[in-house]
Recover the amino acids of this structure.
């Protein structure tokens, strides 16, 4: 069997929790094999797929854990993606959930009127709402964000990320994802 490009490896921290939920911490099989040889990771689970060289063969890891614990940053970086994740991929004016490519970010107080590009002035917005609001203040057009924008915590982004599972989830990952959520009764 040949190794496909669709064999990502779930990367867990040394405490066996995912480094990130969204985007999920995934490495290519090539990066994973390199980390195994450099003795930086432990293999937790494997695919049936095998990678071969003239004098070597091994199953491709499906789940690995880092040997050294990586601390989460105390405050998330201000990025377009993190704004969307904070706002749960929903337009903060009409409330509709969108794919990230269908969202823009809007300055509540427009930059042309002194608004800053930061956590407390930027919200996710769908294109129609962003166009409608334009470069007007929220008060001028009576369009206010559903939720007041503020800087998120790493834990908030992690919690929000759990609501948006990735398109690909291998069965060997299930024991390591969402293990701290409430089970069905």
């Amino acid at each position: 069997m040949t190794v496909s490009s669709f064999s990502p490896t779930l990367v867990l921290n040394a405490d066996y929790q995912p480094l990130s939920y969204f985007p999920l911490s995934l490495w290519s099989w090539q990066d994973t094999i390199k980390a195994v040889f450099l003795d930086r990771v432990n293999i937790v689970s494997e695919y049936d797929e095998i990678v071969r060289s003239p004098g070597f063969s091994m199953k491709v890891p499906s789940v690995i854990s880092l040997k050294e614990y990586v601390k989460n940053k105390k405050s998330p970086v201000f990025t377009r993606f993190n704004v969307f994740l904070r706002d749960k991929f929903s337009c903060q004016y009409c409330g509709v959930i969108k794919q990230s490519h269908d969202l823009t970010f809007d300055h509540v107080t427009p930059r042309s009127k002194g608004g800053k590009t930061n956590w407390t002035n930027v919200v996710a917005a769908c294109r129609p709402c962003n166009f409608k609001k334009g470069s007007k203040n929220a008060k001028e057009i009576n369009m206010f964000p559903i939720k007041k924008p503020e800087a998120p915590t790493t834990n908030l982004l992690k919690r929000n990320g759990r609501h948006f599972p990735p398109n690909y989830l291998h069965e060997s990952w299930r024991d390591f994802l969402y293990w701290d959520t409430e089970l069905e009764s």
